[in-house]
Amino acid sequence: MEENSAPQWLERLLSTGNFFVDCGYHNDPRNECNLYCLDCNSGNPICFYCRSSHHNDHQVIQIRRSSYHDVVRVSEMEKFLDTGGVQTYVINNARVFFLNERPQHKPSYKASSSHLCEICRRSLLDPLRFCSLGCKLEGVKKNGNASFMLKNNEGVAVGRREGMTREEEEAMMEYPSRLQYSNSRRRRKGVPHRAPLGT
User: Fold this and answer.
1) How confident is the model at residue 25 (pLDDT cuts 50, 70, 90)?
2) Which of 16, 98, 146, 174 is the most buried (most CB within 10 A)?
3) pTM here?
């Protein structure tokens, strides 16, 4: 795989259009297909029960919905891809990426933002290059001046779990999420006081 290329599973993930349908194999509650296995080559979404029975030791991400568009949490994708240059959004207190370009209204004559996606020209909130993972993939294919490959401390591109045991990778990936959680935890404003008891 070239340094500027993207993993094969990413293209399959972005072209999957049938998330959030009922699983054809399981007729139980929670059978909505909103998970995607990165290790399998099927390109099909899976449900909670499929994961439990066939993908238990695989790398799986959860797809979520926001205004009829598919999103994935930043914390999940950063384990597998260099997501630099892609705009993040906060939805339900979680930072997410949109998987694909979203349709937009006619562009206004006055640009509402000086930051635009290089591919679809959507306005961006921050000075970044892409509005979605799909647009970054197009940028990688067209220009080759962006990459999805993670780099180690020496700047060498590495794949998932390369040179690490699964436990080491999980420990490395857990630390930032625990740190983020502890920083966002709300503190009490003071010591709660009990109302005086009447006699």
Assistant:
1) confident
2) 98
3) 0.70
